[in-house]
Amino acid sequence: MKLTRTLLAASVLLAAVAAPAHSQVKIGVIASATGPTAVVGLPQRNTVPLLPAKVGDLSVEYVSMDDASDPNQTVTLFKKMISEDKIDALIGPTGSPNAMGIIQFAADSGTPVLAPVGAASVVLPMTPEKKWVFKTTQNDDIIAAALVKHMVEHGVKTAAFLGFNDAYGESWLNVFKDLAARNNIQIVATERYVRSDTSVTGQALKIFAAKPDAVLVAGTGAAAVLPQVTLVKQGYKGQIYQTHGAALPAFLQLGGAQVEGTVLAASLMLVLPEIADSNPSKPIAQDYIQRYTAKYGTAPATFGANVYDAGLLLEKAIPQAAAKAKPGTPEFRAALRDALEQTRELVATQGVYNMSPEDHSGFDERGRELITVRDGQWRLVK
Prior knowledge:
alpha/beta; 6-stranded mixed β-sheet; 15 strands; globular
């Protein structure tokens, strides 16, 4: 009997040693699948099933929740994921104000956040708290530089700004003011609006009266359409620019003829057929679009790609962190943060990531294309 027990114990030990390591990594996802930002959040939520379910010998579980576009709900859900679900990292949230609201909680808990948001203020200026946040979209300055360059080349001397009255709009206004001043473009009107507004007639009338050569609209999703349509209907004939927050099919569908000629800088995904095959991001973007379309019957908005790229970043970083600590521990989360910060030349759907302690977005000019609307379609500016 004793010999039997000894043999049994030995066999169990041998099996444990021989079995491959198979620990679980938990990744939280917060997307605004409902509410005013849903047009952005839905493709992000829908992208979650396309993220890696296994990285090396580690299985990955995604805990996905909807914050209904409410920044307060974002904080509540993030706290729950930290305390109850014991997540190792967070992908999300959808909106810039929502992301700003969780930075301190990410730092306090030591949880890496991969935020698919527009405002550079979630990672800049870098602080001890923001070192836990990474951004999977292009920073405003990279996008704005392309727009201002186009303005200069087309003789724009005066411009107006009409943007969100929140972190996204504030970040864009600051960047645009600086670039405009450096390029001798005078900003003759500055107006703000709320994401949920149904009318911006008052703001548009003030801009129209200022007679700027060009107008920059800083909004996201469907809410980026309203200011432009209002200006055009009032008879504005100058050039209208949009940020990468407008880069989705709904902008074309809702704007119709009023958004013809719009200029924006955004992801190559908008104009993928026109992108050279030599571009390293093209096959990755094509694969994502094909997988998403096969699952949902429609192509994804570029905002979904921001979540997909978060998955690619984690896929590279998780093995490095797992070599130092066990998932589910503070040590693993810290190692994961360090690994993300050391990302070099990671080719993704929208460009190439090179993170550093100073740059938690990592995009360079390979992460943008200058795009216009022509005949109801996105087209490269040539």
